[in-house]
């Protein structure tokens, strides 16, 4: 009888052992959440260098009894830019100053553009790694005519551009700008020019 009871007890333990072992297994581990680094916004101070190609015309209505005249203007510009922007999340507003040295020349040896200064406002869309914007403001141009003195005057500038982020503090800039001066320095000549520029910018 004792031998039979012992055998029954061993059999019962053999059957319940796996169930007890399964109930004391390791607890499931919580999922690991990897944080995503936020994309830097476009707000703050910035500056950089630029290279532009420009083309346009210098036109004059002509003296009484003579027809209008027009000559071409083209060449390369290079310079620096600096500004400040406020990023509102989906939109960005900013101001920018450009100081430009120019090698644009007027056909026929009439003169050449020496320098440009531009002050503009920017407003556009923050898409994350890209900033798409329109811009408008004023610019000044120094032009050396065939005479001994430089002439200087102000006009309107406007256009559009895109900045694309290369790193957390560096971006590639591309911009198309239209420039217009009426009656340059009282000469009766009107200046129209379009520039296409590329630059590298750095945020501070």
From TrEMBL:
| InterPro entries in the cross-refs | Beta-barrel_OMP, OMP/PagP_B-barrel
Residue span, Outer membrane protein beta-barrel domain: 39-204
What are the protein's UniProt keywords? Signal
The answer to whether the entry has keyword Ribonucleoprotein is no
Please give the superkingdom of this protein's source.
Bacteria
User: Where is the signal peptide, in residue numbers?
Assistant: 1-21
What Pfam families has UniProt attached to this entry?
Answer: OMP_b-brl
User: Which protein is depicted?
Assistant: Porin family protein
Starting at the broadest rank, the lineage of the source organism is: Bacteria, Pseudomonadati, Pseudomonadota, Alphaproteobacteria, Rhodobacterales
């Amino acid at each position: 009888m004792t031998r039979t009871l012992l055998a029954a007890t061993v059999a019962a333990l053999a059957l319940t052992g796996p169930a007890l072992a399964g109930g004391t297994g390791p607890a499931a581990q919580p999922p690991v959440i990897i944080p995503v680094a936020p994309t830097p916004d476009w707000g703050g101070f910035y500056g950089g260098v630029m290279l532009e190609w420009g083309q346009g015309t210098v036109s004059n209505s002509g003296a009484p009894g003579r027809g209008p005249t027009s000559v071409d203007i083209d060449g390369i510009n290079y310079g620096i830019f600096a500004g400040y922007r406020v990023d509102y999340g989906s939109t960005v507003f900013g101001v920018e100053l450009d100081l430009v040295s120019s090698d644009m020349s007027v056909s026929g040896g009439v003169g050449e553009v020496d320098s440009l200064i531009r002050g503009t406002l920017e407003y556009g869309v923050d898409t994350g790694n890209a900033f798409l914007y329109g811009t408008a403001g004023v610019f000044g141009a120094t032009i050396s005519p065939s005479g001994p003195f430089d002439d200087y005057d102000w006009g309107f500038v406007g256009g559009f551009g895109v900045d694309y982020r290369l790193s957390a503090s560096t971006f590639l800039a591309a911009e198309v700008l239209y420039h217009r001066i009426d009656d340059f320095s009282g000469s009766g000549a009107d200046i129209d020019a379009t520039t296409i520029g590329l630059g590298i910018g750095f945020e501070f």
